[in-house]
Amino acid sequence: MLDFMLCALTNLFRIFLIGRCVTVFLGRDADKKKKLIICACFYVINTVLFWEFHTVWINTVCNLMGIAAIVRLYTKSVKTNLFITGTIYLVNCGCDVAATSMFISYRDGEAYNQIYAVISIFLIFICELVIEKMITIHKDTEAVQNVSLVLMPICSITVIVFLTYSGTCTDIGLAIVSIGLLAANFLMLYLYNLLLHSISQQYEMEMLKTQLQAYANQLNVILRGEEKIKALRHDIKHHLNELMLLANKHDVAEIQVYIDEMKSFLQNPNEIVASGNLEIDSVLNFMLQKAEKELKTVDIKVILPEKVRHSFDINVLLGNLLENAIEAAGKTENKYLSVHITLKRGILKVNIENSFESSRILCEEQKGKDTVLKTTKPFTQQHGIGLKNVRKIVEKYNGTMAVTTREGIFCVNLILYMARMENGM
Amino acid sequence: MYSIGICDDGENICISIENMLFQYAQEKNIQVDTNVWYTGESLRDYLASGGYLDLLFLDIELFKMTGIEVGAYIRNQLDNMGLQIVYISGKASYAQQLFKTQPLDFLVKPILQEQINEVMDLALKVIKKRNERFEFQQGKDYYYIPMGDIVYLESKGRKVKVVTMKSAFEFYGKLKKVAKCLSEDFIVIHQSYIINKEYVFRYTYEMVELIDGTMLTISLSNRKFVRDKLLREE
Description:
The structure holds two protein chains of two kinds. By secondary structure, chain A is an alpha+beta fold. Chain A contains eleven helices and seven strands.
């Protein structure tokens, strides 16, 4: 009975890990309900078959089919499916072999097979964490947590190995300890998930806060513009009279001065971009107001249709890029910033240039094809998240980004595909 | 000689743009011929009766027939993709439909000489490229068509098919060889398709939709190449 419980528990943990592994491989989550149903079926069938038959080939087939079914939820591509299924199964097998070979000299018996399974599951757990770390290395997760995470299964293995070899513990005791360790590991993974979730939520909240600030600013801009127009409308009779008087005097120069004054009165210094997209205008005006205050030359060209889809992502992208650009330009003598944004033939093109101090900054590091730029900011740890998010968004829209430097000018060039075609493969 | 149209309901704006164009022409030592219309209808009538223009400065907010309608008329009714349109407007927000007419640029009033110079530089470059000749042999006859008229080229067995808005030609040849004598407006998206970028309605990473509604797939091996080209252009 205890053995069966152990077997069931290890299997449960294993399938949970497989599910997590697939998510890590494909980078996103599938429909949760479907995944739960498939995992549950896989679990029941797998456990029953394993317990009833103890036959290698039935196990292999069942496992492969189960993993493939889970992967199928995420991707329709057969090639990817085969690759991921194969990799996961190989890791599983490898861990099983490693676990049993540790005890090859140990006496053979069914009861202890379950102990192998427990050790094997811890090994799989470690592998899964390592894979996760390798794949998500580009994303923003903290390194420290992962180390402590790996320590947990290693300790568990050590305890079990020690108990079996020292022989101080009965079989039943060993089984109970194993169950306890399994549960502890499982709980820790669960807590870790919660932690990650709350971190990402925190980040989202921060982003929304910035967005809100930008909206409030835009509202201000619009209100102030309206006020000025109201004031002008109120005084229009007076202005016309004045102009008429000047015209009667044939004083052209005076008229020009007067009109210029009216114009500059109407001009809203905070409304730098007015493309008609409330969301995008908000972020641009918010960021560029700062730029106009701090910088000498600010060159802006925004040509967008009045309605642009995915404006939230575009805002995150522009916000991050502009923040970096304005900060870097502010430290230089030229204080130069140029922002060009256009949407043409379904492609959003963003070009941001700013002056930068090449001596202080950054070393370009050739890492394969990618040019990795190091930050100018003193605290490298906090930095880089902005650009990482930009990269994520660029990837999401199949786009590409080029970062180049020339004679004190830092230049970011990127395109995003805004259109989706239904019959596109 | 370039013929340039200006359509705006403000007489003074037309005159000031005209003067700036003459200024530019003098500096660059080129010949320009300008035509001015104050309503969208009169411009439409001129174009409908076969009038020719290389470049058009078109006000968006006209009295009855708006610039948007004139632009759409030029592209959809007249099938004229060669005429370069520059929209001028009092504000910097643009309706969705304007983008469907593939404008060369947008200018916000008041318009400065610098802006006119910049637009003219770009327009002349585009017009020159469009007028380069593409030649091929069909039987014993040689054919010449302006590259700007070609929408796309397709490889069909041992033949190459040249598609324009109005007709299509076929001749014996290899698409790879043909690719070498095309201007930089063209881009290879597939081993059997080369498209003219001027005729693209919209791109996605995987496909291209042309102005006439043709959908072509960008082959797997060309997707990154096309994307990088698009990143670097202009």
